[in-house]
Amino acid sequence: MNEKLELKENNYKEIIDIFREAATKASKVINDIYSTNFETELKSDNTPVTKADIESNKIILKILRKQFPSIPIISEEEKYNKNKVYNEFILIDPLDGTKEFINKNGEFTVNIALIQNKIPKLGVVQLPTSGIQYFSDGTESFKINKNKKKKLIIKQTKNFTIACSKSHLDNQILRFLDLIGNKHKILRKGSSLKFCLVAESKASIYIRFGKTMEWDIAAGHSILRTSGGHVKNLNYKSNEIKYGKKNLQNSAFIAHGKIDDLEKIIILAKQV
């Protein structure tokens, strides 16, 4: 593989293959640690971290830095310059859903995304426990499960279904659910899998009011984007979420596919 592969659209297929390889290799190490009695520590922001987070990060960075030596790479598990803004960079969450990993419910993922001009152009989300992989090649989105490849095209769900976080069901979400009324189903999932539920047309929306970082959502957003969905900002005119902010922190957002009464739902969400 060319070590100086340029991040141009005509190279997207090769680039996403590298991302997918990195996610697969990281998933293997995560699984190895998952089967042991691993220890948990707290980072300076009081979020948990395990050996799996660190080892997954090392593997991904080694692969990506070899292939893209001049491209900035920002990872949850690496220090970064909070005053620097990049137009083109790679975002990594080497183990998204550390709480789910600790609780051993299997709902954690490896996330890698390419950001260009504030848009998540490419992304991969992989579940280490099952080997299921979702990815966007820049124009289309796919799900691979046991060598079966399925193209993801969003369709309207039969029932209005809301994807919610498994570990972060806060008062704002509960208030929103109350405003929506009882004509809905709820799917609670960990990590970036909630974006994938919308991309698969298994959920109508995924809404989040609490704090998230760009590395939490970029890969899932890319998959949703090229399957026909959107991730809209709930704080500023409901525009599509953008990337490359100085603090890398997201506002409240709604990820959605094809749904009726979207504007009504956004209005209700803004009342929370």
Can you give a write-up of this model?
The model has no long low-confidence stretch (mean pLDDT 93). The protein is globular, with a radius of gyration of 18 Å. It has 7 helices and 14 strands. The chain has 2 domains: 9-151, Fructose-1,6-Bisphosphatase, Chain A, domain 1 (2-Layer Sandwich); 161-270, D-Maltodextrin-Binding Protein, domain 2, CATH 3.40.190.80. The chain has a 7-stranded mixed β-sheet with strand order 3-4-5-6-7-8-9. It has helices at residues 12-34, 51-67, 98-103, 171-180, 193-199, 214-225, 262-270; strands at 40-42, 48-50, 73-75, 88-96, 109-116, 119-126, 133-136, 141-145, 148-151, 161-165, 185-189, 205-208, 230-233, 253-256. By secondary structure, the chain is of the alpha+beta class. Helix 5 runs parallel beside helix 6. 31% of the residues lie in helices and 25% in strands.
Strand order of the largest sheet: 3-4-5-6-7-8-9
The tally of structural domains comes to: 2
Secondary-structure content class: alpha+beta
Low-confidence runs (pLDDT<50, min 5 residues)? none
Shape: globular
SSE ordering: HEEHEEHEEEEEEHEHEHEEH
Terminal CA distance: 50 Å
Query: Could you say what the CATH topology of the largest domain is called?
Result: Fructose-1,6-Bisphosphatase, Chain A, domain 1
Radius of gyration: 18 Å
CATH architecture of the largest domain: 2-Layer Sandwich
Strand runs, count: 14
What is the residue-averaged pLDDT? 93
